[in-house]
Amino acid sequence: MTDVVEQGEEGLTKSALKKKAKEEEKARKKAEKAAKVKEAEQVREAAEGPDYAAAHYGKLPLHQSQSRPNRKRTDIATLSAKNDSEHVLLRARIQTSRLQSNKMAFLSLRQRTDTIQAMIAVDDKQVSRQMVKWAASLSDESIVLVHGTVVKSPESIKSCSIDDVEIQVSELWLVAGLEGRLPFSLEDASRSETAPEVEGQFSRVLLDTRLNNRIIDLRTQTNQAIFKLQHAIGDLFRDYLNNNGFTEIHSPKLQGAATESGATVFKVGYFKGDAFLAQSPQLAKQMAIAADFERVYEIGPVFRAEDSNTHRHLTEFIGLDLEMTIEEHYHEVKELLDGMLKTIFKGLKERYAKEIAVVGKQFEVEEFKWREETLTLTFREAVDLLVEDGVDREHLDDINTENEKRLGRLVKAKYDIDYFIIDKFPLELRPFYTMPDPNDPTLTNSYDFFMRGEEILSGAQRIHDPEFLCRQMRAKSVDPESMKGYIDGFRMGCPPHGGGGIGLERVLMLFLKLNNIRRASLFPRDPKRLEP
Amino acid sequence: MTDVVEQGEEGLTKSALKKKAKEEEKARKKAEKAAKVKEAEQVREAAEGPDYAAAHYGKLPLHQSQSRPNRKRTDIATLSAKNDSEHVLLRARIQTSRLQSNKMAFLSLRQRTDTIQAMIAVDDKQVSRQMVKWAASLSDESIVLVHGTVVKSPESIKSCSIDDVEIQVSELWLVAGLEGRLPFSLEDASRSETAPEVEGQFSRVLLDTRLNNRIIDLRTQTNQAIFKLQHAIGDLFRDYLNNNGFTEIHSPKLQGAATESGATVFKVGYFKGDAFLAQSPQLAKQMAIAADFERVYEIGPVFRAEDSNTHRHLTEFIGLDLEMTIEEHYHEVKELLDGMLKTIFKGLKERYAKEIAVVGKQFEVEEFKWREETLTLTFREAVDLLVEDGVDREHLDDINTENEKRLGRLVKAKYDIDYFIIDKFPLELRPFYTMPDPNDPTLTNSYDFFMRGEEILSGAQRIHDPEFLCRQMRAKSVDPESMKGYIDGFRMGCPPHGGGGIGLERVLMLFLKLNNIRRASLFPRDPKRLEP
């Protein structure tokens, strides 16, 4: 008997099998649905008798764009006492719900960074006991469509961002419910990261748990604000450069050869050969300069195959890169970069105070400080400051991460600022394409920019002369033949130029003091994480 | 003896070898330079006797930011008769040079999309015969620093974009010269692509030759204009969406699993495992919607491992993608996309007339036409139009590229427009995540947008219900287990939503009728091209 069945199953064609499975699935679903509907009806009727509010609540059918009545939808953020007694229609998430009595329930409704209180109370024609019960039974994070009236609140509602009005619900419809349990509550995910934790009282959500369930994690008001600020940084960067005569370019991420440093490049199978993912748009930006673009910028992904598992490294991040011709001196570039960053800081502070405050509730945001005249130290002056503070000079051929932070603290203590520049790095610390200083061949025309003691921008004047470039490559043991296309780009005449590259996520992390770069990336990638 | 020498060489340490090579190179360079300088001096003196203009011209030393006199530089584009007799200082390329007599030479100076004539004429103290000769001897495409006086031109200078003034040169300095010959002249690279070619008279430059020498090719005024327009499209897209409440996101291009269709995805070595390059931000955009972002867009690279060698396929291109929640009907999305595209067309036409005209000199640009009320056909209506025109209905299960173009011609003939929409595509032509039509399960809530008979945008309402999504996946033979993370994203409640994706290069190519998408990409990538 078993044999026969197995043979029979195997005897079916693949498509017939699929069809069969589909039909079974369909029948099962139908039966399940009917049972659920019946159960719900029985419960209701047993409890309350026929429901006079039945037409005012329930689960909506799957939204397939069935109709278009063109009714206005309202944003929670726009509501205040001035809207008192207005009728509103809105879609929102249920952040929390609470059954006050068997006649009244409260919902906290959320849209992005805002919440408002909704009250649903039994009356004799619109809202029934069954409706109140159903409303309170909806899972947190359900999406609902709410009809209601704006009502001035007698006292400030502390639990909501809109604190002077609430919504008196007249209809409530479930747009999308949940299947299964939330991995963590948004309340837990929103707790202060800096307030002392009282044991047993509540729990914080670990970063890994958040990132494994990033879709839920991103819904917190904090994360909504963080990514509005990420968008703002990009816009401020772009506006500043557009106003300064720059052209936005898009350079290919697929490269024919491993450039700059082969060890940290991802290899891609490319038809019958190989390609490599660009570690930066450095070469493309410079080629655009050789092609007369004069001033270019690019906002795009940058790939680093470094097995670094630190708080500030990602394998894919967004580079804000620019390159420009130099007329007289590379400080033209340094000053433009400085002006751009200060414009970003100022723009965030002035136009995004609300979002910064939202993030500040979860992360201790010491206000980010800078001054109009940016402090610029030479590398030597920076080293001297560290030596004065007790660091051994012989460990200061380079300034490592630890000493960078120490320097940040020294500058903060001395000047009360979180932003400064170091100029004139030693030749041996910079890539082969960096222009040496005209007076001291051990130094270069290069700079790094720092926020809260961490590097966020690196840049320099580049070598635009092909012969000199080849010489410098050989001195750094890079074979000019391996980068022939790049060098050839300069043989047909290239103007003097310089530029810099910024990590978007680093600027965001350091401005807000998020302490881990993964919090500043929508779906972060590191050596151990490729999902979601 | 040979043995000894070889041993000796091999016996040196690597760094000593490098040092030796460096010293030899240095000595060689020094000798070479001295010889050149001497030769030049001899030539000069033999010809003309001592040169009273010697301090007014020559090759500048390598620009290493030696000084910063803060002298104002002038943009050619800003000059006109109003600047008559002003002294100017500017850096430009020599587009062409012509020795008129042994007392006078003309240079055509170029900055991006503009050219101006410069005259260098012997006088008795500033400009010598040697200086004129030297000026005329500079290679085309050399970069020079010019001091001079703006002089009103007695007649219109037809060969230059600035036609009412020229520059009388007083000093001329070579900033960067050329090593070797240009692969083609910019004059040849700028010839009309549509005017009939007279045999033997002049040659056009083939696309492959251009792309192999893209840095030179990009310098043409046409290409400078094309990439200003590419930048403009991105800015107009972004501004429109920023004004409509969208948040810009950056989603990872490195994916843990091959999504959508495994056959056309690039595989990347990722530490000890594999990753895949995102074929679109589709899944990430939808996850952002499930994470409450409400309205998102992304501008970023999209990778397609398709071995398509056509005029309109690239393996890497820039996607302009957006996704938004739907309140009542997916036409909200279609209308927003339509409004966005019309704003782009209008913005280009109104604000970039100059650049469009520059491109028009090389490519026959039939003016791109659209109307305020966009023509929208259903898929069925589009098929009917083709059938009326004589296409066999049974070949119209899908509308192939050839029939798309035919449809474009039909619409152009009937309505005199180059832009229209097709709505309601059959289910079998769309991906599994497309929402079916509520009334006809063989159709979907999906649309394509067309420019000059070619598709530039594809989009739809998406399925936001996880169970229904799994069912549709199985119906299209996609294993839901293979995309678990994606589906799980919808289990915690996702609002109804839709969106679309645009190819930036396609919009640019079709608006300007460039006929090949490679012309709309800075450094194009196709199955056969990974360089430069």
From TrEMBL, chains A, B:
GO terms for cellular component: aminoacyl-tRNA synthetase multienzyme complex; cytosol. InterPro entries: Aa-tRNA-synt_II (IPR004364), aa-tRNA-synth_II (IPR006195), aa-tRNA-synth_II/BPL/LPL (IPR045864), Asp-tRNA_synthase_2 (IPR004523), Asp/Asn-tRNA-synth_IIb (IPR002312), NA-bd_OB-fold (IPR012340), NA-bd_OB_tRNA (IPR004365). Residues 1-24 are annotated as: Disordered. It catalyses: tRNA(Asp) + L-aspartate + ATP = L-aspartyl-tRNA(Asp) + AMP + diphosphate. It is found in: Cytoplasm. Its EC number is 6.1.1.12. GO terms for molecular function: aspartate-tRNA ligase activity; ATP binding; RNA binding. Keywords: Aminoacyl-tRNA synthetase, ATP-binding, Cytoplasm, Ligase, Nucleotide-binding, Protein biosynthesis. It comes from the Eukaryota. GO terms for biological process: aspartyl-tRNA aminoacylation. SUPFAM superfamilies: Class II aaRS and biotin synthetases (SSF55681), Nucleic acid-binding proteins (SSF50249). Its main location: cytoplasm. Residues 227-524 form the Aminoacyl-transfer RNA synthetases class-II family profile domain. Belongs to the class-II aminoacyl-tRNA synthetase family. Type 2 subfamily. This is Aspartate--tRNA ligase, cytoplasmic. The lineage of its organism: Eukaryota, Fungi, Dikarya, Basidiomycota, Agaricomycotina.
